[in-house]
Amino acid sequence: MDNKVISKVFLWMFIGLFVTFLTGYVISINEKMLISVFSTSSYIIFSIIEIVLVIILSARIKKMKPTTCRIFFLLYSFISGLTFSSIFIAYSVKSIIYVFLVSAIIFGLFSLIGYTTKINLNKVGIYLMMALFGIIICSIINIFVGSQSFDLFLSWAIILIFMGITAYDIQKIKNIYTSTICKDNLAIYGALQLYLDYINVFLNLLRLFKDD
Protein backbone atom coordinates (compact mmCIF):
# COMPACT_ATOMS: atom_id res chain seq x y z
CA MET A 1 0.00 0.00 0.00
CA ASP A 2 1.06 3.58 -0.70
CA ASN A 3 2.75 5.10 2.37
CA LYS A 4 0.63 8.20 1.82
CA VAL A 5 -2.48 6.14 2.58
CA ILE A 6 -0.92 4.84 5.81
CA SER A 7 -0.10 8.44 6.78
CA LYS A 8 -3.72 9.43 6.13
CA VAL A 9 -4.91 6.47 8.22
CA PHE A 10 -2.96 7.68 11.26
CA LEU A 11 -3.88 11.32 10.62
CA TRP A 12 -7.60 10.54 10.63
CA MET A 13 -7.23 8.25 13.62
CA PHE A 14 -5.64 11.07 15.64
CA ILE A 15 -8.30 13.52 14.43
CA GLY A 16 -10.96 11.07 15.62
CA LEU A 17 -9.28 10.69 19.02
CA PHE A 18 -8.95 14.46 19.35
CA VAL A 19 -12.65 14.98 18.61
CA THR A 20 -13.60 12.25 21.10
CA PHE A 21 -11.48 13.51 23.99
CA LEU A 22 -12.28 17.18 23.39
CA THR A 23 -16.01 16.41 23.30
CA GLY A 24 -15.75 14.30 26.44
CA TYR A 25 -13.93 17.04 28.34
CA VAL A 26 -16.35 19.79 27.27
CA ILE A 27 -19.36 17.68 28.29
CA SER A 28 -17.75 16.78 31.64
CA ILE A 29 -17.47 20.42 32.73
CA ASN A 30 -21.11 21.18 31.91
CA GLU A 31 -23.36 19.60 34.53
CA LYS A 32 -26.61 19.99 32.58
CA MET A 33 -25.14 18.42 29.44
CA LEU A 34 -23.63 15.62 31.51
CA ILE A 35 -26.98 14.81 33.10
CA SER A 36 -28.66 14.87 29.68
CA VAL A 37 -26.10 12.53 28.12
CA PHE A 38 -26.28 10.01 30.94
CA SER A 39 -30.03 9.88 31.33
CA THR A 40 -31.04 6.28 30.64
CA SER A 41 -32.81 6.93 27.33
CA SER A 42 -30.12 9.27 25.95
CA TYR A 43 -27.25 6.93 26.81
CA ILE A 44 -28.99 3.97 25.16
CA ILE A 45 -29.69 6.04 22.03
CA PHE A 46 -26.08 7.24 21.78
CA SER A 47 -24.77 3.69 22.26
CA ILE A 48 -27.04 2.41 19.48
CA ILE A 49 -25.96 5.25 17.17
CA GLU A 50 -22.29 4.34 17.77
CA ILE A 51 -22.92 0.72 16.76
CA VAL A 52 -24.99 1.73 13.72
CA LEU A 53 -22.30 4.16 12.49
CA VAL A 54 -19.58 1.49 12.74
CA ILE A 55 -21.77 -0.99 10.84
CA ILE A 56 -22.58 1.55 8.11
CA LEU A 57 -18.95 2.61 7.69
CA SER A 58 -17.78 -1.00 7.47
CA ALA A 59 -20.55 -2.19 5.15
CA ARG A 60 -20.81 0.84 2.85
CA ILE A 61 -17.15 1.86 2.63
CA LYS A 62 -16.95 0.95 -1.09
CA LYS A 63 -20.00 2.98 -2.10
CA MET A 64 -19.73 6.07 0.07
CA LYS A 65 -18.39 9.34 -1.24
CA PRO A 66 -15.17 10.39 0.57
CA THR A 67 -16.86 13.42 2.13
CA THR A 68 -19.73 11.30 3.46
CA CYS A 69 -17.22 8.79 4.82
CA ARG A 70 -15.37 11.53 6.71
CA ILE A 71 -18.60 12.97 8.12
CA PHE A 72 -19.68 9.55 9.42
CA PHE A 73 -16.28 8.99 11.05
CA LEU A 74 -16.27 12.41 12.71
CA LEU A 75 -19.86 11.90 13.84
CA TYR A 76 -18.87 8.56 15.37
CA SER A 77 -15.93 10.22 17.14
CA PHE A 78 -18.23 12.94 18.46
CA ILE A 79 -20.88 10.50 19.73
CA SER A 80 -18.14 8.44 21.40
CA GLY A 81 -16.96 11.62 23.10
CA LEU A 82 -20.40 12.07 24.65
CA THR A 83 -20.25 8.66 26.31
CA PHE A 84 -16.55 9.11 27.16
CA SER A 85 -17.24 12.22 29.22
CA SER A 86 -17.71 10.07 32.34
CA ILE A 87 -13.98 9.30 32.50
CA PHE A 88 -13.26 12.97 33.20
CA ILE A 89 -15.49 12.66 36.26
CA ALA A 90 -14.06 9.37 37.49
CA TYR A 91 -10.39 10.26 36.88
CA SER A 92 -8.23 13.36 37.08
CA VAL A 93 -7.03 14.97 33.85
CA LYS A 94 -3.47 14.14 34.93
CA SER A 95 -4.32 10.45 35.20
CA ILE A 96 -6.10 10.45 31.83
CA ILE A 97 -3.13 12.10 30.12
CA TYR A 98 -0.73 9.62 31.75
CA VAL A 99 -2.77 6.59 30.63
CA PHE A 100 -3.24 8.18 27.19
CA LEU A 101 0.54 8.42 26.75
CA VAL A 102 1.14 4.87 28.01
CA SER A 103 -1.55 3.63 25.61
CA ALA A 104 0.09 5.59 22.79
CA ILE A 105 3.46 3.93 23.47
CA ILE A 106 1.90 0.45 23.52
CA PHE A 107 -0.13 1.21 20.40
CA GLY A 108 2.90 2.63 18.60
CA LEU A 109 5.04 -0.41 19.45
CA PHE A 110 2.53 -2.95 18.18
CA SER A 111 1.74 -0.82 15.14
CA LEU A 112 5.43 -0.91 14.27
CA ILE A 113 5.50 -4.68 14.77
CA GLY A 114 2.48 -5.12 12.51
CA TYR A 115 3.92 -2.85 9.84
CA THR A 116 7.41 -4.36 9.73
CA THR A 117 6.91 -8.06 10.47
CA LYS A 118 7.21 -10.55 7.63
CA ILE A 119 5.04 -13.06 9.51
CA ASN A 120 1.52 -13.45 8.14
CA LEU A 121 -0.80 -12.48 11.01
CA ASN A 122 -4.07 -13.65 9.40
CA LYS A 123 -4.37 -16.79 11.53
CA VAL A 124 -3.27 -14.91 14.63
CA GLY A 125 -5.98 -12.33 13.93
CA ILE A 126 -8.65 -15.03 13.69
CA TYR A 127 -7.59 -16.55 17.02
CA LEU A 128 -7.53 -13.12 18.66
CA MET A 129 -11.05 -12.36 17.41
CA MET A 130 -12.25 -15.69 18.82
CA ALA A 131 -10.58 -14.89 22.15
CA LEU A 132 -12.17 -11.44 22.16
CA PHE A 133 -15.60 -12.96 21.56
CA GLY A 134 -15.01 -15.25 24.53
CA ILE A 135 -13.92 -12.33 26.70
CA ILE A 136 -17.06 -10.38 25.77
CA ILE A 137 -19.23 -13.33 26.87
CA CYS A 138 -17.29 -13.58 30.13
CA SER A 139 -17.68 -9.83 30.69
CA ILE A 140 -21.44 -10.10 30.29
CA ILE A 141 -21.56 -13.00 32.76
CA ASN A 142 -19.42 -11.06 35.24
CA ILE A 143 -21.93 -8.21 35.22
CA PHE A 144 -24.23 -10.55 37.14
CA VAL A 145 -21.48 -12.27 39.16
CA GLY A 146 -19.73 -9.04 40.15
CA SER A 147 -16.26 -10.51 40.76
CA GLN A 148 -13.68 -7.73 41.03
CA SER A 149 -10.71 -10.07 40.66
CA PHE A 150 -12.22 -11.59 37.51
CA ASP A 151 -12.94 -8.09 36.21
CA LEU A 152 -9.26 -7.27 36.72
CA PHE A 153 -8.28 -10.39 34.77
CA LEU A 154 -10.66 -9.46 31.95
CA SER A 155 -9.13 -5.98 31.65
CA TRP A 156 -5.61 -7.39 31.32
CA ALA A 157 -6.86 -10.00 28.83
CA ILE A 158 -8.54 -7.33 26.67
CA ILE A 159 -5.38 -5.20 26.68
CA LEU A 160 -3.25 -8.14 25.55
CA ILE A 161 -5.76 -9.16 22.90
CA PHE A 162 -5.95 -5.66 21.44
CA MET A 163 -2.17 -5.38 21.38
CA GLY A 164 -2.20 -8.32 19.00
CA ILE A 165 -5.23 -7.02 17.07
CA THR A 166 -3.45 -3.70 16.57
CA ALA A 167 -0.52 -5.45 14.88
CA TYR A 168 -2.96 -7.56 12.84
CA ASP A 169 -5.00 -4.53 11.73
CA ILE A 170 -1.91 -2.57 10.72
CA GLN A 171 -0.71 -5.46 8.57
CA LYS A 172 -4.18 -5.91 7.09
CA ILE A 173 -4.45 -2.21 6.23
CA LYS A 174 -0.94 -2.22 4.79
CA ASN A 175 -1.69 -5.23 2.56
CA ILE A 176 -5.12 -4.14 1.34
CA TYR A 177 -5.21 -3.58 -2.37
CA THR A 178 -8.45 -3.10 -4.22
CA SER A 179 -9.50 -0.90 -7.09
CA THR A 180 -13.07 -0.77 -5.75
CA ILE A 181 -12.22 1.39 -2.72
CA CYS A 182 -10.83 4.88 -3.21
CA LYS A 183 -7.76 5.78 -1.15
CA ASP A 184 -9.59 8.43 0.88
CA ASN A 185 -12.26 5.94 1.97
CA LEU A 186 -9.63 3.32 2.70
CA ALA A 187 -7.85 5.81 4.97
CA ILE A 188 -11.07 6.37 6.95
CA TYR A 189 -11.75 2.63 7.17
CA GLY A 190 -8.23 2.03 8.50
CA ALA A 191 -8.52 4.96 10.90
CA LEU A 192 -11.73 3.52 12.32
CA GLN A 193 -10.13 0.11 12.93
CA LEU A 194 -7.09 1.60 14.68
CA TYR A 195 -9.25 4.07 16.62
CA LEU A 196 -11.22 1.15 18.07
CA ASP A 197 -8.01 -0.73 18.90
CA TYR A 198 -6.50 2.25 20.69
CA ILE A 199 -9.65 3.11 22.60
CA ASN A 200 -9.98 -0.44 23.92
CA VAL A 201 -6.38 -0.45 25.17
CA PHE A 202 -6.84 3.01 26.71
CA LEU A 203 -10.12 2.27 28.49
CA ASN A 204 -8.93 -0.98 30.00
CA LEU A 205 -5.64 0.52 31.16
CA LEU A 206 -7.66 3.30 32.72
CA ARG A 207 -9.81 0.78 34.57
CA LEU A 208 -6.62 -0.66 36.07
CA PHE A 209 -5.28 2.74 37.02
CA LYS A 210 -6.10 4.10 40.47
CA ASP A 211 -5.84 7.76 41.38
CA ASP A 212 -3.93 8.52 44.55
Characteristic terms for this protein:
single chain, 212 residues, mainly alpha, 9 helices, 84% helix, globular
Would you give an account of this structure?
The chain is mostly helical and 212 residues long. The protein is built from nine helices and no strands. It has helices at 3-28, 31-37, 40-59, 66-84, 87-90, 93-116, 122-145, 148-175, 183-208. α1 packs parallel to α4, α3 (40-59) packs antiparallel against α4 and α6 (93-116) crosses α8.
The average pLDDT score comes to 88
Q: What is the molecular shape?
A: globular
Beta percentage is: under 5%
Q: Give me the strand/helix succession.
A: HHHHHHHHH
Q: How many strand segments?
A: 0
Task: State the end-to-end distance.
Answer: 46 Å
Low-confidence stretches: none
Proportion in helices: over 70%
Structural class: mainly alpha
What oligomeric state best describes the polypeptide chains here? single chain
Largest sheet: none
Count of DSSP helices?
9
Rg over alpha carbons: 18 Å
Could you give a quick summary of the protein structure above?
With 212 residues, the protein is mainly alpha-helical. Helix content is 84%, strand content 0%.
Q: Layout of SSEs?
A:
Layout: H1 3-28, H2 31-37, H3 40-59, H4 66-84, H5 87-90, H6 93-116, H7 122-145, H8 148-175, H9 183-208
Helix pairs in contact: 1-4, 1-9, 3-4, 4-9, 6-8, 6-9, 7-8, 8-9
